[in-house]
Design a protein that fits this description.
The complex is a heterodimer. Chain A is of the alpha+beta class. The relative contact order of chain A is 0.12. The longest helix of chain B has 25 residues. Chain B is α/β, with parallel strands linked by helices. The termini of chain B are far apart. Chain B is globular and about 65 Å long. In chain B, helix 1 runs parallel beside helix 4, helix 1 packs parallel to helix 11 and helix 5 crosses helix 15. The chains are: A alpha+beta, B alpha/beta. Chains A and B meet through helix 1 of A and helix 3, helix 4 and helix 10 of B. The structure holds flavin-adenine dinucleotide and FE2/S2 (inorganic) cluster. FE2/S2 (inorganic) cluster binds next to loops of chain A. Flavin-adenine dinucleotide binds next to helix 1, strand 2, helix 4, strand 7 and strand 14 of chain B.
Amino acid sequence: MATPVMDKAEAGAPANNSPYITITLRIRRFNPEVSDEAYWEDFTVEVDPKERVLDVLHKIKWELDGTLTFRRSCAHGICGSDAMRINGRNRLACKTLIKDVNPEKPITVEAIKGLTLQKDLVVDMEPFFQAYRDVMPFLVTKGNEPTRERLQSPEDRERFDDTTKCILCAACTSSCPVFWNDGQYFGPAAIVNAHRFIFDSRDEAGEQRLEILNDREGVWRCRTTFNCTEACPRGIEITKAIQEVKRALITRRY
Amino acid sequence: MKIHKYDTVIVGAGGAGMRAAIEATKRSRTAVLTKLYPTRSHTGAAQGGMAAALANVEEDNWEWHTFDTIKGGDYLVDQDAAEILAKEAIDAVLDLEKMGLPFNRTPDGLIDQRRFGGHSRNHGEAPVRRSCYAADRTGHMILQTLYQNCVKEGVEFFNEFYVLDLLLNEVDGVKRTAGVVAYELATGDIHVFQAKSVVFASGGNGKFFKVTSNAHTLTGDGQAAAFRRGLPLEDMEFFQFHPTGIWRMGILLTEGARGEGGILRNKDGERFMEKYAPVMKDLASRDVVSRAIYTEIREGRGCGPEGDHVYLDLTHLPPEQLDAKLPDITEFARTYLGIEPYTDPIPIQPTAHYAMGGIPTNVNAEVLADNTTVVPGLYAAGEVACVSVHGANRLGTNSLLDINVFGRRAGIAAAEYAATNDYVELPEDPAGFVERQVESLRSSEGTERVTEIRKALQETMDKNVMVFRTEQTLKEAVEEIGALRKRYKNVSVQDKGKRFNTDLLEAIELGNLLELAEVTAVSALARKESRGGHYREDYPNRDDVNFMRHTMAYREVADDGTESIRLDYKPVVQTRYQPMERKY
Ligand SMILES: Cc1cc2nc3c(=O)[nH]c(=O)nc-3n(C[C@H](O)[C@H](O)[C@H](O)COP(=O)(O)OP(=O)(O)OC[C@H]3O[C@@H](n4cnc5c(N)ncnc54)[C@H](O)[C@@H]3O)c2cc1C
Ligand code: FES
């Protein structure tokens, strides 16, 4: 086993005297306590280009304007709190580095679309979670419980691995043009979570979930625009999952 | 002010809170109050796994697991509790599987298991495969599975409700649980929840450190609320520093990386853990590895221009193995450091990770008002609690286990209590404390800013209360925190509004962190020995004669309003294991 050369990593590591740059974050502000109108506001800040957009939002909130409001918790792409539109694309602020969003120009930041705006970057998540709850997002089994674990082969486990990664951030659903136009559509995230159970070999409610998704507002509304797949911060192949659900509806095999 | 009435109120919807909720909802009218949407809880960040002696891949049993837990905790563990933890682990994992958790599988279709620090076969002979896992997303899968089952059971959630006070009322000379007070983020309204029983499951308090694996929201609100109401906090000086946080950022890289064969190296490429832990090497317990890393750094063998980190080397592992077993952490390295872990070692440093201390409970998750007296109707589970199954140092994979075992116990016990007891009358002016707190912050014209005080707090904690401590550093910390608490009285917020006022809540959270930091530093100053995560350079040895006991810290308020911390001690429960020197 070779010992790697230890200073090779330095190239990629954050530099010590990092060259700070000046950037403009153009944020779409909204506070219904003050005005019914949303407006754009520019903030000019010094940042290390390797910082996250979330770090810059914090810098603004903590040092310039305490009223700037956004959700966040984990700060490393796990909790799904901070999906927002950055330069017109849905991303997690904590997984987006400044250097990757063209800092030479003003970087635009606004709330995700299709859900009611409540304040600055905060939207009402309730309809999103309601759609999720509607697809029976839980394992359903019949008969007696085994005393030990249910067996599942690694291949069967792999079958639905991709859709277990969902963190319910809503980046996909709120990037979907169908969802923007029709808030009743279940949206990609709910379908992803239905997929996660339909293709789980242990589950016995696939038929019921497929019927739910066969609804007028179900999978058939998907126009395969791939926005969702591009938006997913977890790299889930969402369009593929939706296609698999459509196919299962036709063949009734899954 | 709005008043609600529930049999059982659960504060927090992480792993512990939701595990409790699933049980409580079946048995009593239950509300879950959580400051985050349930799936945003930090349980979702856990990576490596959950321990249980399933013996699916090699010989193992719960008795070995009990021993490892006690030894890992440097004998400060309450042994009756550790035994319950290890015994009930097996059902806890099987329950999750039945709820749908997608564990990784063996070729035979069983739950797969892997190695983790401090877990051994036959009392320390060799590492054992005890950690049940789902790639490096075990916490995510636990959180999702529990939320899914809450949906299935129809658990009632109040999302983005911040619990800011605990209501106790004295009846027949005994302080009993009456409910909690919460602040609703969306509206700024204050709600009183009257309840027969309350379960605190509000998570840890790591955010008083700067370099930490903890979320921004882990601010110890539950611990602080209990403490302010006169309840003790146990063993707060014991905080775990995880060896492998991403350099400067603190984002965790699971110990599972070393379980899969990853190696720690210094600037000379040397596998330095061989010197410090000849048997367990890179898989020695966390406090041992974290100290070894800092010793390397101090002795000039750290990496980088400033010699302030070491490397986690995964380059000898096949890319397929990294993709299959460690997909998330390798992605963190790519996203945040621009490093390709297939070919380059990852710069790491210890990161503040886990609070072993917290609200004291017995093995039924009942909260203690002193060494023995239970507070009727009050329960705590998860990182907010101190049972104590982790003692002076928690073993990896034992917390996901703890939240499931004691979360379940708390949910059942709280609901059963509610079924057989009446409501306690609310104290006079129940929302008064929270109303005044919120109003005074909103109207304050003070000159101090939250961000500056928080920064100063985190700096002093990182400098003085980290892996190596001395009388001098701890005194400095106590003094600085005291000064910061004075400045905090003069703090103001910019957002004076009612809707989604996170500016205001950050100020309240900072108040909690300051209070808990002080308890931590004061407790650490008094513990003149080294044990587990608490290492005193001026007292480098464990001292069982004077300090084989839990710290119990109480808040005292004198007649003139001055506050102080009183320390008391509680004996450790020992059943079959005699303290031995801890070697790995
Ligand atoms: C990065 C990382 C990796 C880890 N990996 C592992 C591992 O592999 N194995 C292992 O065993 N352990 C691991 N741990 C430890 C373990 O994940 C945690 O200790 C455990 O998940 C804590 O669970 P909890 O339910 O107590 O708290 P959390 O999951 O933190 O939940 C706290 C809950 O309380 C709520 N809350 C907080 N304050 C309030 C308030 N004022 N009002 C209302 N609600 C409130 C929050 O909304 C949240 O729902 C890891 C920890 C971290 C940080
Ligand atoms: S803050 Fe958790 S995903 Fe960004």
